[in-house]
Amino acid sequence: MAKRIDNPADCEIRAVIRFLQATNIQPADIHRQVCEVYGEGPMSDSMVRRWCRQFENGRDNVHDDKRSGRPSVVTPDLVQQIEVKIRENRRFTITDLAEFFPNVSRKTVHQIVTENLHFRKLCARLVPKNLTPEHKTKRMGSALSFLERYKEGDEFLTHIVTGDET
Length: 166
Known about the structure:
- The protein is mainly alpha-helical.
- The chain has three domains: 10-56, Arc Repressor Mutant, subunit A (Orthogonal Bundle), CATH 1.10.10; 76-128, Arc Repressor Mutant, subunit A (Orthogonal Bundle); 131-166.
- It is built from seven helices and two strands; from the N terminus they run H-H-H-H-H-H-E-E-H.
- The chain has helices spanning 10-22, 27-38, 45-56, 76-88, 94-100, 106-116, 133-151, and strands at 119-122, 125-128.
- Strands 1-2 form a two-stranded antiparallel ribbon.
- The chain is elongated.
- It starts with 9 loop residues before the first helix and ends in a 15-residue tail after the last helix.
């Protein structure tokens, strides 16, 4: 019995079909052999027959043909426009933001805000997950001044109280 291979790539199975078809094995036998090694799920008997026919007719590429698909609505320009609107008014809802962009669905606006701009909801408003360069610079400056005061022996650091924003 053959060793079982899990999660094969489609082009891998097609390459096997092409090889077996070139050795004059019938499509039904090819399907049986594919099922022995890859299991029942990866390719049906009719699909094996279809690929055998295509290879017989001269096809030599085992990869999928290019498809146009649906054009993406999310463009860098749209992401930038949404970010500008967010920076104008930090207290927004996705619905409010979607009203500014009537050609874009509410779901797409939510996707841009969370996945492209990496904002998350905090206290009923969305805030960036990562610090902006301005915040990083300010934080670095504060840390350096704290270190200088510490090196001078100032007891200033004993009076610092830290906390989480949330």
